[in-house]
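Practice problem: predict the structure.
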Amino acid sequence: MSLRRLMAIVVLFASVNVSVALADDLKIVKVGVAGPLTGFSASYGKDEENAARLAFEEANKQGLVIGGQRVQFEVDGQDDAGDPKTAVLVAQRFVDEGVSGVIGHHNSGCSIAASLVYRRAGIPQISPGSSSPAFTARGFENTFRTISNDDQMAVVAAQYAVGKLGAKRIAVIDDSSDYGTNLVTEFVKAIQREGATLVSWQYTTTQSIDFRAILTTIKGLSPDLIFYVGQDIQAAGLVKQIHQLGVRAKFMGEGGFTNEAFLKLAGTSSQGMLSWEYGLPLARMPKAAELDSKLKARFGVGIVQFAPLAYDASWAMINAMKDANSTDPKDYIGSLRTVSFDGVTGPIAFSSTGDLKTASATLYEQQNGKWVVLGVERTTSR
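Answer:
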């Protein structure tokens, strides 16, 4: 056998051995992503799942080495249907699978119910969409969110309604979801502190399409402002019926209305409508355009509403693992308390409760078929 052939065989065996070693050294890190992929808020759940998948796929392309091992993230996306009972079942599935962390859930009621399961298992949970104060108020060390909470939003909205719009008589409508009731409750407290009067508090459901009965009641009370919390599809029907019934009060809402689908459904009846949204406008998010392009290239759909928050939540988890040099939840959970980076939505850092240290809210007005930014408010927490 020639020396050249012998050397080739040696190199071949060495290459095979290195490949086997690298394969053996690759650690699969499972991550759960949970949200409503069906039901009334399905578009938000899919929006969040796409963004989370993109973030973990990008991390995989970087060839991260954590704890001396090359890691590859494997995402398990699960549908909780916006139902707390289903969310608990999803959470237990993740625990049984041995996931290292969870991005989700979207709905506050789902996050709160599932958080008990995650806490017992010691698994970090970062929600991109759950805004209820109760989610982080219990002091769980594993609970975080990348969205501002309802207390912060309610105060900002109330101060604007009373202080800048001059509203003294206010009617409120919520959709009876945990999210809707929580935010409206905090808004009512805030407007009363500001000196306004609550003239009516009406309830609907997430499936309602006919609001004429409650609007007739409200119209008879002559409010200056109607404040509504619910889903964008319902809000479109609601503002149409407000217009049809000749209700003269200003309309202010919160629920992800600043999208083209809402404007198409509501039409000209939404002219002058005010809408509060959690976070900065996309145009003012440092990297939103880049994320939108990436999502379109990967999934064929860009940012719907919550994708930037889910993307930042995912990178908060990845960066915490890198900082702790471990993918083990008990090791990196402490690093989530100190993680700090510039995300798509702005600076990402968590307070002692797991809330964002700096949160934003943006007020829009519908003008001639377009949403126009009227102002951005920022709040801080410790």
